[in-house]
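tool_call: predict_structure(chain=1)
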Amino acid sequence: MPTGPRGSSRLVLASRLLAACLVLAGAVLATAPAASADVKPLVGDNQRLRFYGTELDGALFDGRSLIGKPAVLWFWTPAPYCGVCAAEAPVLSRVAAAHPEVTFVGVAGRWDAMSMRRFVADNNLKFTNLTDANGMIWQSFFVPWPPAWAFLRPDGTGDLVNNVTGPMSEQELTDRVIALTAPPAPPAP
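tool_result:
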Protein backbone atom coordinates (compact mmCIF):
# COMPACT_ATOMS: atom_id res chain seq x y z
CA MET A 1 0.00 0.00 0.00
CA PRO A 2 1.52 3.36 -0.99
CA THR A 3 2.26 5.69 1.90
CA GLY A 4 3.20 9.34 2.12
CA PRO A 5 2.01 12.23 -0.05
CA ARG A 6 3.15 10.68 -3.37
CA GLY A 7 1.54 7.33 -2.60
CA SER A 8 -1.75 8.99 -1.64
CA SER A 9 -1.72 11.04 -4.85
CA ARG A 10 -1.19 7.92 -6.93
CA LEU A 11 -4.02 6.13 -5.17
CA VAL A 12 -6.39 9.06 -5.74
CA LEU A 13 -5.34 9.27 -9.40
CA ALA A 14 -5.83 5.53 -9.88
CA SER A 15 -9.27 5.71 -8.24
CA ARG A 16 -10.34 8.58 -10.49
CA LEU A 17 -9.04 6.80 -13.58
CA LEU A 18 -10.99 3.66 -12.66
CA ALA A 19 -14.18 5.70 -12.07
CA ALA A 20 -13.76 7.46 -15.43
CA CYS A 21 -13.32 4.10 -17.20
CA LEU A 22 -16.47 2.72 -15.57
CA VAL A 23 -18.50 5.78 -16.55
CA LEU A 24 -17.18 5.59 -20.13
CA ALA A 25 -17.98 1.87 -20.35
CA GLY A 26 -21.51 2.56 -19.11
CA ALA A 27 -21.98 5.34 -21.67
CA VAL A 28 -20.83 3.07 -24.49
CA LEU A 29 -23.20 0.31 -23.38
CA ALA A 30 -26.06 2.78 -23.01
CA THR A 31 -25.79 3.81 -26.65
CA ALA A 32 -25.56 0.28 -28.04
CA PRO A 33 -28.73 -1.19 -29.54
CA ALA A 34 -30.41 -3.92 -27.51
CA ALA A 35 -30.00 -6.51 -30.23
CA SER A 36 -29.24 -9.41 -27.94
CA ALA A 37 -31.46 -10.19 -24.98
CA ASP A 38 -31.39 -13.11 -22.60
CA VAL A 39 -35.04 -14.12 -22.08
CA LYS A 40 -36.05 -16.76 -19.54
CA PRO A 41 -39.66 -17.88 -18.97
CA LEU A 42 -41.07 -17.52 -15.46
CA VAL A 43 -43.46 -20.27 -14.34
CA GLY A 44 -46.86 -19.29 -12.98
CA ASP A 45 -46.70 -20.38 -9.36
CA ASN A 46 -46.31 -16.86 -7.87
CA GLN A 47 -43.68 -18.12 -5.39
CA ARG A 48 -41.30 -15.33 -6.40
CA LEU A 49 -43.87 -12.76 -5.29
CA ARG A 50 -43.83 -14.03 -1.70
CA PHE A 51 -41.37 -11.41 -0.49
CA TYR A 52 -41.32 -8.30 1.63
CA GLY A 53 -39.32 -5.30 0.57
CA THR A 54 -38.65 -1.78 1.75
CA GLU A 55 -39.70 1.16 -0.39
CA LEU A 56 -37.18 3.97 -0.74
CA ASP A 57 -39.31 6.08 1.62
CA GLY A 58 -39.07 3.33 4.28
CA ALA A 59 -42.58 1.86 3.85
CA LEU A 60 -43.02 -1.91 3.80
CA PHE A 61 -43.94 -3.52 0.46
CA ASP A 62 -45.59 -6.94 0.21
CA GLY A 63 -44.75 -8.66 -3.09
CA ARG A 64 -47.96 -10.69 -2.80
CA SER A 65 -49.86 -7.49 -3.64
CA LEU A 66 -48.81 -8.15 -7.26
CA ILE A 67 -50.47 -11.58 -7.46
CA GLY A 68 -53.23 -11.60 -10.07
CA LYS A 69 -52.11 -8.31 -11.65
CA PRO A 70 -50.06 -7.53 -14.72
CA ALA A 71 -46.77 -6.19 -13.40
CA VAL A 72 -43.30 -5.11 -14.48
CA LEU A 73 -40.38 -5.38 -12.07
CA TRP A 74 -37.32 -3.43 -13.17
CA PHE A 75 -34.06 -4.47 -11.47
CA TRP A 76 -31.66 -1.52 -11.55
CA THR A 77 -28.85 0.28 -9.78
CA PRO A 78 -27.83 3.95 -9.74
CA ALA A 79 -24.17 2.91 -9.84
CA PRO A 80 -21.98 4.69 -12.41
CA TYR A 81 -21.15 1.35 -14.06
CA CYS A 82 -24.80 0.90 -15.13
CA GLY A 83 -25.12 3.38 -17.97
CA VAL A 84 -27.85 1.13 -19.37
CA CYS A 85 -29.94 1.71 -16.22
CA ALA A 86 -29.57 5.47 -16.70
CA ALA A 87 -30.55 5.17 -20.37
CA GLU A 88 -33.63 3.03 -19.62
CA ALA A 89 -34.99 5.15 -16.76
CA PRO A 90 -36.57 8.00 -18.80
CA VAL A 91 -38.07 5.49 -21.25
CA LEU A 92 -39.51 3.47 -18.37
CA SER A 93 -40.94 6.63 -16.81
CA ARG A 94 -42.86 7.44 -20.01
CA VAL A 95 -44.11 3.89 -20.59
CA ALA A 96 -45.23 3.47 -16.96
CA ALA A 97 -47.16 6.76 -17.11
CA ALA A 98 -48.86 5.66 -20.35
CA HIS A 99 -49.97 2.28 -18.90
CA PRO A 100 -51.63 2.74 -15.49
CA GLU A 101 -53.35 -0.65 -15.91
CA VAL A 102 -49.97 -2.32 -15.28
CA THR A 103 -48.18 -2.13 -11.92
CA PHE A 104 -44.54 -1.05 -12.18
CA VAL A 105 -42.06 -1.70 -9.37
CA GLY A 106 -38.38 -0.80 -9.42
CA VAL A 107 -36.06 -3.07 -7.43
CA ALA A 108 -32.83 -1.18 -6.78
CA GLY A 109 -29.74 -2.91 -5.54
CA ARG A 110 -25.99 -2.84 -5.21
CA TRP A 111 -25.70 0.79 -4.08
CA ASP A 112 -26.67 3.14 -1.26
CA ALA A 113 -30.24 4.30 -0.58
CA MET A 114 -29.45 8.03 -0.88
CA SER A 115 -28.13 7.53 -4.44
CA MET A 116 -31.18 5.41 -5.23
CA ARG A 117 -33.56 8.16 -4.08
CA ARG A 118 -31.65 10.76 -6.10
CA PHE A 119 -31.78 8.53 -9.21
CA VAL A 120 -35.57 8.08 -8.80
CA ALA A 121 -36.09 11.85 -8.43
CA ASP A 122 -33.75 12.76 -11.30
CA ASN A 123 -35.52 10.34 -13.65
CA ASN A 124 -39.10 11.16 -12.59
CA LEU A 125 -39.85 7.55 -11.63
CA LYS A 126 -43.34 7.95 -10.15
CA PHE A 127 -43.92 4.26 -9.37
CA THR A 128 -42.88 2.23 -6.31
CA ASN A 129 -39.15 1.59 -5.98
CA LEU A 130 -37.69 -0.84 -3.47
CA THR A 131 -34.22 -1.07 -2.03
CA ASP A 132 -32.87 -4.61 -2.20
CA ALA A 133 -29.66 -4.08 -0.25
CA ASN A 134 -29.14 -7.77 0.51
CA GLY A 135 -30.06 -8.90 -3.03
CA MET A 136 -32.74 -11.36 -1.90
CA ILE A 137 -35.39 -10.15 -4.36
CA TRP A 138 -32.86 -10.10 -7.20
CA GLN A 139 -31.83 -13.63 -6.23
CA SER A 140 -35.41 -14.94 -6.18
CA PHE A 141 -35.83 -13.78 -9.79
CA PHE A 142 -32.35 -15.08 -10.78
CA VAL A 143 -31.20 -11.61 -11.85
CA PRO A 144 -27.52 -11.88 -12.83
CA TRP A 145 -26.83 -8.16 -13.41
CA PRO A 146 -28.69 -4.88 -13.90
CA PRO A 147 -30.76 -3.88 -15.61
CA ALA A 148 -33.20 -6.76 -15.85
CA TRP A 149 -36.94 -6.92 -16.30
CA ALA A 150 -39.58 -9.33 -14.99
CA PHE A 151 -42.76 -9.07 -17.07
CA LEU A 152 -45.52 -10.81 -15.09
CA ARG A 153 -48.95 -11.73 -16.41
CA PRO A 154 -51.93 -11.96 -14.02
CA ASP A 155 -51.68 -15.79 -14.06
CA GLY A 156 -48.14 -15.59 -12.66
CA THR A 157 -46.35 -16.55 -15.87
CA GLY A 158 -43.98 -14.16 -17.54
CA ASP A 159 -40.46 -13.52 -18.75
CA LEU A 160 -37.21 -12.37 -17.19
CA VAL A 161 -35.29 -10.25 -19.70
CA ASN A 162 -31.65 -9.17 -19.47
CA ASN A 163 -30.58 -7.02 -22.40
CA VAL A 164 -27.00 -7.99 -22.95
CA THR A 165 -25.83 -5.25 -25.29
CA GLY A 166 -27.84 -2.15 -24.40
CA PRO A 167 -31.05 -0.57 -23.16
CA MET A 168 -34.48 -1.90 -24.06
CA SER A 169 -36.08 0.32 -26.69
CA GLU A 170 -39.27 2.21 -25.92
CA GLN A 171 -41.09 0.21 -28.60
CA GLU A 172 -39.99 -3.16 -27.20
CA LEU A 173 -40.90 -2.11 -23.66
CA THR A 174 -44.31 -0.85 -24.81
CA ASP A 175 -44.98 -4.07 -26.75
CA ARG A 176 -44.06 -6.21 -23.75
CA VAL A 177 -46.25 -4.13 -21.41
CA ILE A 178 -49.24 -4.30 -23.77
CA ALA A 179 -48.80 -8.09 -24.06
CA LEU A 180 -49.28 -8.40 -20.28
CA THR A 181 -52.88 -7.24 -20.55
CA ALA A 182 -53.76 -9.02 -23.80
CA PRO A 183 -56.24 -11.90 -23.55
CA PRO A 184 -54.56 -15.31 -23.54
CA ALA A 185 -54.15 -17.02 -26.87
CA PRO A 186 -56.59 -19.87 -27.51
CA PRO A 187 -55.14 -23.35 -27.06
CA ALA A 188 -53.70 -24.99 -30.14
CA PRO A 189 -55.95 -27.64 -31.74
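agent: The CA atoms of residues 182 and 188 lie 17 Å apart. Proceeding to next step.
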